Amino acid sequence: MHNQLEFDTLIIGSGAAGLSLALKLADHSKVAVLSKDALIEGATFYAQGGVSAVLDKHDSIESHMQDTLTTGGGLCDPEIVQFVVERAQQSIDWLIDIGVDFTRSDNKKNTTSQFHLHKEGGHSHRRIIHAADATGKVIETTLESRVRQHKNIKLFEHHIAVDLITVNKFIKSSNRCVGAYVLDVVKKNVQVFKAKNTVLATGGAGKVYLYTSNPDSCTGDGIAMAYRAGCRIANMEFIQFHPTCLYHPSAKSFLISEALRGEGAKLILKDGNSFMQRYDEREELAPRDIVARAIDHEMKRLGHDCVYLDISHKTNKFIQKHFPNISNYCLDLNIDISKIPIPVVPAAHYTCGGVIVNKNGETDITNLYAIGEVSYSGLHGANRMASNSLLECFVFANSAYNHIKKSSEKSYKLDNIRDWDESRVTNSDEEVVVSHNWDEIRRFMWDYVGIVRTTKRLQRAHHRIKLLKSEINEYYGNFRITKDLIELRNLAVVAEIIIESALLRKESRGLHYTTDFPISDDMNVPKNTIIKLNIQPKDYAA
Question: Which of 35, 18, 14 is nearest to 159 (CA)?
Fold first, then answer.
């Protein structure tokens, strides 16, 4: 037991969900937060839009609920939707209390709120509270400042979880999580992190696709680890493609916020003609699945590499106030958005499925929680409504906190756990294999499991992922692990789950569109797609 650390709660992930929970728990317990890169280098930091909440007297809880249910394509859990929406105001108040500086309203014509509220796709009212066009950055840096100051929070940057550690206690059907094996990326050794409670806050899996708005960290680690441990995974066929990612050779994954369309920006073709009116009466403010498919169809129909988003009808003063980061980023690429349209394409953006949890964030495994994008709570259904995702992070961070605090009154001794064994592996001299497999997965996922799908393409992708998984697992078993290898292994697992989920759904619904079943099956009650690894969890107890 040479290299083991022990905490009350281990939080894997350092975005909005993970850091919020850490702050709440730390007043009562000893908390560890793992970040596989720098602390703030996750999807939250790059979120532009904001947090949805009913903050205007012209809006209502019922309206927010109905918009969410409509966007979710019949698969949202109404109880969870109500649970989250009703706690939005409380979440906003908490963020303001810890120092998040949201943009104030200077025009009371359209709102009674003291804050400026955006309107985004699927919303019937202005209800997106934001900090200009860098909401995620402001929230994440505020949270970071707070957690770095707290004496009960131990931060482990550049540490990536390898696998969860689970034990069966007396009853074989009862499985409990007692921590995780963790790779110190800098020192290149694996440690045991023991914890009474373990929380997955690892975000989504956008990097399983070739083109994504997500940062490099979004490799589906939490989903893959939970799946291997025996958790149920739901609705992974529903991958949301953001309609408007900047199309430019120098822009790796820069998002053009939906809030531009909320302020009247129009999607146009190369010839200047708009096209969304042909696809949906809500035009640019239709839910993201509809807008992304419309753009995809126009690009394929015309053979164009991109379409354009035009907000040049707004003044430069307005643009600089509300979208300063987008404007300045584009200006650096010689695109003056106050004068010319922005070239945009869809890109993988949000994982609507994930690890099945209840209202407390509890998974199928005792003492294992999942919050934020890694989870499937029932809020998003078949399609996430804009800006409900950050809201979900704060609500479930709070509900997980309440449950962990209550359950922590029960004390128990953590089991002895075996150290990580590297005695039978060697260093690899074939790192090119990892990078090649990584690239192959992302390419065929984009080509075969993208915005528009066919059964034949899905079957082809399924065949490829089976072969690659076998190759990756053999490699994993023979060589010393690295961060790239861990991520590749997780990407392969998540890719397979997405493909199998898509093959199981014999209809088009929400974000899953297949030309072989182009309409929704409205004759039957919509069902979640659930995938589970049928294994007996390994007993790690000494």
Answer: 35
Which tokens is 232 given? 């149920």
Q: How far apart are CA 4 and CA 164, in angstroms?
A: 14
341-373 tens-digit pLDDT: 999 999 999 999 999 999 999 999 999 999 999
Structure tokens at 483: 């961060």
Q: How many CA atoms lie within 13 A of 433 on its CB side?
A: 15
Write the DSSP symbol of residue 189.
Answer: E
The CA distance from 260 to 477, in Å, is 48
415 or 512, higher pLDDT: 512
pLDDT bin (cut points 50, 70, 90) of residue 170 is very low
CA distance 272 to 188: 54
Mention every residue, 6+ apart, whose C-beta is less than 8 A from residue 187: none
Give the integer Cα–Cα distance in Å for 463 and 493: 13
The helix/strand/coil state of 376 is: strand
Q: What's the confidence (pLDDT) of residue 315?
A: 94
Written as six digits, the tokens of 411 are 């004390």
**CA distances to 52, 85, 350 from 125, in Å:** 10, 14, 23
Q: How far is CA 445 from the centre of its chain?
A: 17
At 111, is the secondary structure helix, strand, or coil? Answer: coil
Nearest to 187 by CA among 484, 483, 432: 483
Catalytic residue among 127, 176, 228, 288: 288
What domains lie within the chain, and their CATH numbers? 4-40+136-238+352-407 (3.50.50.60), 244-347 (3.90.700.10)
Instruction: Write 247-253 long-range contacts (CB < 8 A, 24+).
Output: 247/305, 247/306, 247/343, 247/344, 247/345, 248/333, 248/335, 248/343, 250/333, 251/329, 251/333, 253/211, 253/212, 253/213, 253/214, 253/215, 253/347
Task: Give pTM, 2 decimals.
Answer: 0.91
Q: Residue 85: what pLDDT? A: 97
Average pLDDT across the chain, whole number? 91
pLDDT of the residue at 538: 41
16 neighbors 100 (Cβ within 8 angstroms): no
Active site residue 288: yes
Q: Helix, strand, or coil here: 144?
A: helix
CB of 100 closer than 8 Å to CB of 139:
yes
DSSP line for 170-187? SSTT-EEEEEEEEEETTT
For residue 360, the one-letter residue type is N
How many CB atoms neighbour CB 72 within 10 A? 28
- CA 447 to chain CA centroid, Å, is 21
- Read off the pLDDT of each residue in 84-105 and give the average, rounded to a whole number: 94
Indicate the helix (H) or strand (E) that contains 302.
helix 288-302
Report pLDDT for 1: 55
